[in-house]
Fold these 2 entries.
Entry 1:
Amino acid sequence: MQISGMLKKTAQSLKQRVRYPVQRISIYLPVVTVSSFFVTDSSVQNAYGHVSHVLTTQQYATIKMSYPDIEILATIGTGLMVVIAIFVHGIRYKKRSKIKC
Amino acid sequence: MLIRHNLISNQTDFTFLLIRMAVGIYLVSSAFVGGFLSIMDPMDYGHTYFEILTALQASVGIMLVFGLFVRIGSAMLICIFAFSFVEYGLNALDQIMLLGVSFALLLRTSSKYSVDNLLLKRKNISSTQKFDINRMFLPAIGITFGANLVWLGLVEKLLAPNMFATVLKEYGLSPVGMSVDMAVFGAGLVEIVIGLFYMFGIRMRMVSAIMLGVLVSTVVVFQENMIAHIVMFAIVVMFVINNKDPITGIKMEKILPIIRKMKNVMLLRMYAN
């Protein structure tokens, strides 16, 4: 009886705390994903995230050979994005500090 | 007002601790395995700098975990990252988020939960009235984390589709009703878009919630090494907890009119054709 009362109280306080939809999503999404994978028991054995670890060394080397300049292209693309992002953050920072003044 | 200020201060202190612990644990584990900024690829024992790199990583990791001389530790981490370019070439960018985190730790001026705070009364030496360096903490991490995702999306998926396609084929992971090429393109695009959201500070909490779901599912489905992704987890959780940074929040109301205009232009073009 006491335990159920305590559980009810905890649930109520949680409901009060988790008011915004974003908070709910951030809690529900991982919980739902994990539980669905546990329920369906779906998993890939011996797979380790990063593509280079999933493929065998031979496979990885062969595929890599067919794309010789991707690192340079990707670096240019990512670098450009970083420069633009820093510029945008800088402008926003200036605007904020002007408003404060 | 005072309570709110204290709450925000506690949150930032907590996130500082979280990110420090994550990077520290990652570095110590990497040193323990014998890798160089990597848990999965151990170095050869005959490597010229094997002992030095292992000792450096372990010491920086311990410094960050305990919060002892955090700034010196983060400066050392920047040096380690710079050396990784010598070792891996441009592939060192796989871990560019570590550079962002080390910059952020270097810039941050005060933290409650650290040995530094007990030993030395750290002064706000970097912040002036004109430029508050603490406000750069979250954007520095957001930009580099986003850059990391964009880089991985380009290198592993969009620019080298065969690489990810082979993985999908090998493990039968291609979604139902979708060709492998389309799945590769979609995955790369999603990764890049999430990265851009992080870089430009758009809807950080929402994006982080989605990213947390993705990370958790990859750990469960692919049985990935948890420690290998601990820094990513910490960054994502940090943004879920502490998204209301003064300069990382863009209001959706400002973007919606632009999206509406784009939609109208597209519709007009469609009907014109």
Entry 2:
Amino acid sequence: MDEGPRRTSDLIEPACGLVPLVFGAVALIGWYSGRSQLASIAPGLVPVEANAALGYVLLGAALLLRTGPADRRRAALGAILAIVAGCIGLATLAEYVTNVDLGIDQLIVVDASGIASHPGRMAFQAMLSLLVMAGSIVLHGRVGRVGLLRWGLALVMFALGYYALLGWWFGAREVMTVFGLGPEVALATTASAFAVGFAGLACRHTPSPTSAVLSRTPGARTARIVVLAGIVGVPIVGWITLGGEGIGLYAARFALVTMVVASAILVAGVGLWVGWSADRFSQAERQAQERLVQVEGRYGGLLEAAPDAMVVVDGRGGIVLLNLQAERQFGYSRDELVGQPVTNIIPTGFAERIVADDLRSAKDALEQQIGTGIELVGRRSDGSEFPIEIMLSPLESAEGILVTAAIRDITERKAAEEKLLQTVDELNRSNVELGQFAYIASHDLQEPLRMVASYTQLLSQRYKGRLDPDADDFIGFAVDGATRMQRLIEDLLFYSRVGTTGAVLGPASSEAALEYALANLRSAIGESGAIVTHDPLPTVLADKAQLVQLFQNLIGNGIKFHGPETPRLHISATSTGDGRWAFAVTDNGQGIDPQYFDRIFGMFQRLHTREEFAGTGIGLAVCKKIVERHGGRIWVESGPGEGSTFRFTLTGSATTP
Amino acid sequence: MTVTGGGSYPVDVLLVEDSPGDVRLTQEVFRESALPINLHVVADGVEAMAYLRKEGAYANVPRPDFILLDLNLPRMDGREVLAHIKGDEGLKLIPTVILTTSAAEADVVKSYELRANAFLSKPVQLAEFQSLVMSIGDFWLRKAELPSRRGG
């Protein structure tokens, strides 16, 4: 049963109830007051018997009660009233059948008119209509076969009532006997049967052949107009035609022809109108359908063209729609998935995100997830699982907010990530191994080298000048080579230690580190007469020992590669604004040709011969390694004869060491 | 009863060293130093303990006044030898100095824990080695007061 919102059509049934109520009441008043014209409603008509009038009052009230606002007690009371009215009818029926006076005829009012064979007994048709009306009202709201029976009773009542009413209206009194079934029927009976029958046909809430006419569709509206034109328009045409003849405007034949033509015009006109509106309606419907197909096609095309699997899910986590990619990805056919819970293909992490819980509504739940790529696990029809990434977006629909999930198979990406991690792992391991190798190699190489160096030196000590000059030279080269190799190995060892044995970075005063470095360089500074100055220097995040080494190497270089003047060095630091400091070690030395800027930071790279400057060329490589280990950058600004400025960056520290 | 190391009699020094090059170098440098030293040499830890306990062929060797011990030795390494010496009532008073190529912090700490009397790294340069040997002779055999081998 359609329990839609209340509409004006819901007032039809209660209004129909007023007809028997009012007619019955008026007749009863007529009986009690002795005014017979009231009992027959209009002058010259058969009066309605008092017990029938009482029945109509009861039925009118019953109809009002049973068709008004839904309420069990009202409905029950209405049924009781209808049953009482029905009992009056049944008793009368019994009298007709058995010909025994049950005392029902003059139950209320004693009819002393004596015009009828059975004084006070209602007409046979009135009795029938009382029974049918009562049955129709008691069965109100019933569906199925009983509902259909109720509808059939209403149709019969309506048709007979309509027929008799038109007879009264057109002055054809013989029609009011309704097929001559008995005596003439009272107007109250006719009107009541018509009204209750109409109410039974106009019941919107119970499905029946006529209830569809009361719906709001354009077709129902058209049907209502046609029905109204038939049952109201045609009688009006007839009445006008008959009226014209009655006052002598034209003859009966003319009247008949006129009425036929008028009726034909009415029917044809309505037919034309129905046809036109049906056409217009179907055209509009076709357009709407085309648009729908278009939109669906476009959306469907969009869905199918999407590179990702798309699954549309409702607020309860049920799958509403999916595309071809989704079918392929999960190994299901569309029919197997639509209507199923999304947990069939995404066991965890998805439904929980979109389904509302105690803390949030479905809308809020979804809004929290919009646009975020969520990595989950998908499950295929064969039970195998694969990594997926889903992106959610809301989709407004008639069924509420749906969720469109774009699902991407990220197996390959995951594999690539894994491979990358593995590669990084391997790289790290090989770096560590390389560092260990450098350390072990240089350490173990020292042992035999010590032998070579020691014995060549012993040879040199004991036999210098005692052999020939060539022997002295050869021994000299051997000693020199061994000594240099020792230094190279020491430097290599030192360089490898920068990465492998560095301490954890912590707040370190760069000024204190500089002072340490200057102390270590005391003899070099003293010998060269170098003047080293510095600005106040900040606290940085560093390995203090390596910071000392950094300053020592840079300042040592500045002194070593001095120009013709007294070496002057200045150390300063400026904040770069992003929490870092840029240090500068400026000297007035020989300067460096820009083409060598990259080379000087390499391992064992030298710009001078050993005769000019001693050293292995490891100093700046160590500086670079130290700075890079601290997450900084080192570079040089210089030119030949201009002096050099070595710059490097370090991260500042808010806390003091 | 103690006597000063600077007596006229020669001092017996045990060198535990497996590298022939190092043995010879040490011998040469000691010879050049002209210190009154009898240098006895064993090549591994097992030999060293046999020497110190006068076992087998070492029944008649003199008890050393001073031991120079390398850490990396075949069969029984220097750390074990050191542990045995310092755990032996009859030997623990003999000054034992570690002389090795290792300068690893762990080795230094371990050696002192085992009560080594000093830890020295073999210098890379011959001249430094020579001065080291001179220092050993000067400090341990001349200046330091040592328990007498005869009084022990």
